[in-house]
User: Fold Pirin-like protein from Nepenthes gracilis.
Amino acid sequence: MSATGINLRSLFQLQTLTKISVNYKKTSSYRFSLVVMSSGSAESSSLNRPRQVIKNVLAESQHEGDGAIVRRSIGRPELKYLDPFLLLDEFTVTPPAGFPDHPHRGFETVTYMFEGAFTHQDFAGHKGTINAGDLQWMTAGRGIIHSEMPVSEGINHGLQLWVNLSSKDKMIEPKYQELSSKDISRAENDGVEVRIIAGESMGIHSPVYTRTPAMFLDFTLKPGSFFFQSIPESYNAFVYTVEGEGIFGELNSTPVLAHHCLVLGPGDGLSVSNRSSKPLRFVLIGGEPIGEPVVQYGPFVMNTQAEIQQTFLDYQYCKNGFEMARHWRSR
Ligand code: FJE
Ligand code: FE
Assistant:
């Protein structure tokens, strides 16, 4: 393949767009011939530094809330904290089970429904329903008390992620960002479909504002497809498998089944392929580590023991953000 006439600028664009590995052979001054070393597979690129899986944690079922069952990955003893992520629960809940009135302070909760619906009500009168495909990104900040309950019989299935806030943001005013399924951008290419919850993929950006810089992508890969997703090098990142089986990181690694949390090591992105005969669904989540001490007492996450003590007092005496708690009960 001769590259005579190709300028170097477009060669670079070609490299970044198709992620092929190229060798330049100087044949005469200002003339280059182009030798393509490997196929157009993003997986085999020498230009990317794919992240490897450095830890694999099975999310085993446990009881939580009132009769609810969750598969916890981040937050369990083997994976207590993956800065800035405090918790990841895959929940499957049927009434009357649920998460009745409880408080939060110092972080954000992200609820993403796969199937069924949840209603939430908070002590400030905010309420709503999160249906299949919808997202609620709730910044608890200085304080929220709310209930989260399934709407109807049947399967109410989703993910809840807790994202820590830096010390300067822990006491901010609570805020909600709610996206219904139709408002979540979707992109598709070569058997790979992505819903962009936060961050960017396939050139599409989510409108969700993440106070702690973060990405949250929901991928579905058809059998035989593969993908390379860029991840900022400074982020901590992980995959959580929801359905099917996939090969992540190392090309010759064994396929990972559903309900596993794969912590990714350093590098600039994720290589994934589906060599099975069924669809693969997983979420890729990453965020800028905060690098501050974490003192957690259940739903209160602060930086010091003294701040936790203060939070107990604020909660008990309904002050510093918990004022509305005095006369409120969910209905
Ligand atoms: C909580 C116990 C809890 N995982 N997944 C203690 F159950 C909860 C809590 C949840 C939760 C809610 C949903 Cl909708 C989904 C969840 C735990 O509400 F926050 C504390 N501290
Ligand atoms: Fe909650």
